[in-house]
Amino acid sequence: MTLRMLSQKVAQAVDEELMSAQGGFSIDQLMELAGLSVAQAIQKSFDVSSHPRVFICVGPGNNGGDGLVAARHLSHFGYKPSIYYPKQPNKDIYKRLLTQCENLGTTMVGMDQFEQHLNGQTDVVVDAVFGFSFHGDVRDPFRNVISAFQQTQKPIVSVDIPSGWDVTTGPTEQVSFQPQVLVSLTAPKQCASHFKGNRHFLGGRFVPPALAEKYQFDIPNYLGADQAVEI
């Protein structure tokens, strides 16, 4: 399935319209739907019996919020998620998402435990660090996270775009890791043309057809009650 890939500018415009008075969505609604689609894509890609331990690396923005929602759903799906969240914003929405995970007994991994946990206590790594609005160089405390993504042999699932990639041109001289699974949100971004992993999903079963028509991108057919479709 070939879908139109969005530029950063168009992706930002789509998000803004979804959350406008005309679109009617709130940011926490979109995070909930995005995170659920990520969790479903992981469930479709990695059986809980062979890959129960999912290590979710969470950034400080909306991409990280999607990761926190995914962690909660994965716990309910029978997986054993753990979270690395080194830069926690002082916003109520992220605090509540984190509390929801903690109430389910989700393991929180400290900075001094990060590499040991990733390499020894993980079956799948979720990259929920940076989304399509990221630009510039990766800085601490996430420099070591991206470095670990470059080196690990564990399968990586990236949320929307691989963290640190250029949203338009893809891998850079500094960041070139390839996730095994990519879960694009709303519509694939232009950098997805450089994805060489095994499975590419789309999560965006919330886009009104009129909005997709306005910005000239496609809405695929989702099966049954699925929130993620392989493309």
Question: What does this protein structure show overall?
Answer:
K(+) binds at residues 63, 127, 163. It is an enzyme of class 5 (isomerase). The protein is an alpha/beta fold and 231 residues long. It has one domain (8-230): Rossmann fold, CATH 3.40.50.10260. The protein has helices at residues 8-18, 27-45, 62-76, 92-103, 114-120, 143-151, 209-214; strands at residues 53-58, 80-84, 107-109, 124-128, 156-159, 181-185, 199-203, 228-230. An eight-stranded mixed beta sheet has the order 3-2-1-4-5-6-7-8. Helix 2 (27-45) crosses helix 3 (62-76) and helix 3 (62-76) runs parallel beside helix 4 (92-103).
Spell out the key features of this protein:
eight-stranded mixed sheet, 231 residues, 16% strand, Rossmann fold, alpha/beta, 8 strands, metal ion binding, 7 helices
Give the topology.
Blueprint: H1 8-18, H2 27-45, E1 53-58, H3 62-76, E2 80-84, H4 92-103, E3 107-109, H5 114-120, E4 124-128, H6 143-151, E5 156-159, E6 181-185, E7 199-203, H7 209-214, E8 228-230
Parallel strand pairs: 1-2, 1-4, 2-3, 4-5, 5-6, 6-7
Antiparallel strand pairs: 7-8
Helix pairs in contact: 2-3, 3-4
